[in-house]
Specification:
single chain, alpha/beta, seven-stranded mixed sheet, four-stranded parallel sheet, 18% strand, elongated, binds 6-O-phosphono-beta-D-fructofuranose
């Protein structure tokens, strides 16, 4: 079937670089003479026909903008058969020959459901959590990591002056990829992630003691939100050692901001690749990176894969933090 018209949407938590990806999808489609429609507010927009035609200019100067011009949402309605049937109806009514869905795990589950109705769907991984199992890299991770690093570097200045302990909570939902990466980059005293068992005395208190023995007078503890709350960890530290830690929850600040070069370029390559796949007759695929190379995988297969923190990162952190 010749592809004449496609839709693009962003869904789930936003991620810096989503706009660069939307731009790439639109420009790649137009290059091939394919019409492109933006679907607003994720899968909800497909259910309710909340769409707009996108031309060259509508995606001008968005490569550098955080957030998503298409808005985003998590749709509970789309998780029902009724919602999915309505979305299929919208695709048929509007003559959409394929959908490109930019987002995370939930977005891909939606894509998987829609593809079972015979609509070609390609998913592009974009989430600061970097927790898409079939892909080493997700759009937004690099920018979010750099934002968190910048914040922690600033915190370190004041922690150093006051000889304090800081407990910083980093986003990631149930995953610790962001926290681990940020902890390595900021030279944290300890990093707690949900993927690794936590022995509080060994993994936090002993590391602080060791740092103190080595002559340090301020301590940075990075905790992934999935591994516990920074407030509780700070309270526990206070109970066990003569420190009065300050708590910082970085929160949604990590999801905003100008996308990094890495996020812009990968988003552009991934958007291009998604359109090429649709043109080639592919359906139900997820774009992913494997050892730095952009490739793609079947949606069912991609969603059934498992991923964990790289052992190398755990080992390096262990060595850097001394015990
Ligand atoms: O999945 C991205 C993410 O930012 C997670 O890291 C976080 O747990 C969640 O979304 C926050 O969601 P919301 O924006 O709905 O508060």
């Amino acid at each position: 079937m010749a592809i004449k018209r496609i839709g693009v949407l962003t869904s789930g938590g936003d991620a810096p670089g989503m706009n660069a990806c939307v731009r790439s999808v639109v420009r790649s489609a137009l290059y091939h003479g394919i019409e492109c429609y933006g679907i607003r507010r994720g899968w909800n927009g497909l259910i309710h026909g909340d769409i707009l035609r996108l031309d060259e200019r509508s995606v001008g100067h968005i490569i550098n903008r955080g957030g998503t011009i298409l808005y985003t949402a998590r749709s509970t309605e789309f998780m029902t058969a009724e919602g999915q049937e309505k979305a299929v109806g919208t695709c048929k009514f509007l003559g959409l020959d394929g959908i490109i869905a930019i987002g995370g795990d939930g977005t891909f589950r939606g894509a998987q459901a829609l593809s079972k109705y015979g609509i070609p769907v390609i998913g592009i991984p974009a989430t600061i959590d970097n927790d898409i199992c079939c892909s080493n890299y997700c759009i937004g991770f690099d920018t979010a990591a750099n934002t968190a690093i910048e914040c922690i570097d600033k915190l370190r200045d004041t922690m150093q002056s006051h000889e304090r302990c800081s407990v910083v909570e980093v986003m990631g939902r149930n995953a610790g990829y962001l926290a681990m990466y940020v902890g390595l980059a900021t030279g944290a005293t300890a990093v707690l992630v949900p993927e690794e068992p936590i022995d509080f005395d060994h993994d936090v208190i002993e590391k602080i003691r060791q740092a103190r023995l080595n002559g340090f007078t301020h301590y940075m503890i990075v905790v992934a939100e999935g591994a516990g709350s920074a407030a509780q960890i700070a309270a526990k530290i206070k109970e066990e050692i003569d420190l009065d830690p300050r708590v910082t929850v970085l929160g949604h600040i990590q999801r905003g901001g100008t996308p990094s070069a890495r996020d812009r370029v990968n988003a552009t390559k991934m958007g291009y690749r998604a359109v090429e796949l649709l043109l080639g007759g592919a359906s139900s695929r997820i774009i992913c990176t494997h050892n730095g190379v952009i490739t793609d995988v079947d949606i069912d297969e991609g969603l059934s894969m498992a991923k964990s923190i790289q052992q190398e990162e755990v080992d390096v952190l262990q060595t850097m933090t001394g015990i």
